[in-house]
Amino acid sequence: MSLHADTHMGRLELRVRDMAGMLAYYTEGVGLEPLADEPGAVTLGHGGTPIVRLTESRELRPSRRSDAGLFHTAVLYAELPALAATLVRMYERYPHTYAGTGDHLVSQAFYFTDPEGNGVELYHDRPRDQWQWHGNQVQMATLYIDPAEFVSTHFAGVDPTALPPTQAELGHVHLQVGDIASAKAFYVDALGFDQTAALGGSALFVAAGGYHHHMAMNVWNSAGAGPRQNTLGMGVVDILVPTVDELGKADERLRFAGHRPTFDGRTLTVLDPWRNEIRLAVG
Question: Does 3.40.630.30 match the CATH number of domain 68-228?
Fold first, then answer.
């Protein structure tokens, strides 16, 4: 049984050492807005939609490049001019964090690395009727996008003050894991996502409701990685389902597969094979 078709991503927690520097990056660069402030943490997003929660964790050490954990956080923009405006701001204020582009056929994406080494993807989806499916697998690729041409096409001559409020959300979360077979057993067979694409034994893409991917896992830097230690970087990954009944079904699937989720009737929390914390809630 799969996760409900209306399942989508909630917010991603990042455990950070330099709160001031990271807050500046995600507000002044990425352009996220503070939505909630609490001692030692701030939630950022757009239009009231949470995307990232920064939690100050100065006592933690940085993760290593070969560790399991976050590959990138992916912010999905509803409109191309808003994405282009964000790229202009990033190129002006944080050009050294630029990491590349990718036309994935289903989407157009631009990659950065934040000041503490966390990957960031900023992207826009092409219309779903342009996605090509082969059975239940979506066709994706990684083709080059000229960022200057993209900005010129979608932002040249646009008055930034005349743009409507940015609409964006956490589109997907991409993980580094130790092996793809274990990732599929957890995220597809137990948690209930559908597999939407795979790159041999090196990457897996999963989603609910016919999306191209809500989560992805790869072993490009992390093949053979074991469970995570308590490090900086990714904290809790929030996934939102439409009803409490869906939480109960996920709880049953996970327990049947031998996992030990915590379910209090409102949220379900479980650790994947690499001790990445996944939390399901109604939203």
Answer: no
Does the pTM exceed 0.90? yes
Q: Which residue ranges make up each domain of the chain?
A: 68-228
Beta bridge partners of 133: 138
Strands (E) in 63-193, as ranges, are 69-77, 98-103, 107-113, 119-125, 133-134, 137-138, 168-176
Neighbours of 237 (CB within 10 A): 22
DSSP per-residue string spanning 25-88: IIIIIS--EEEEEETTEEEEEETTEEEEEEEE-TTSBPPPTTSSEEEEEEEEESSHHHHHHHHH
CA-closest candidate to residue 48, choices 168, 171, 173, 172:
168
End-to-end CA distance of the chain: 20
With contact defined as beta carbons under 8 Å apart, do 128 and 107 qualify? no
Per-residue pLDDT band at 269 (split at 50, 70, 90): very high
pLDDT of residue 156: 83
Which pair of tokens denotes residue 262? 């915590």
% of the chain with per-residue pLDDT over 90:
96
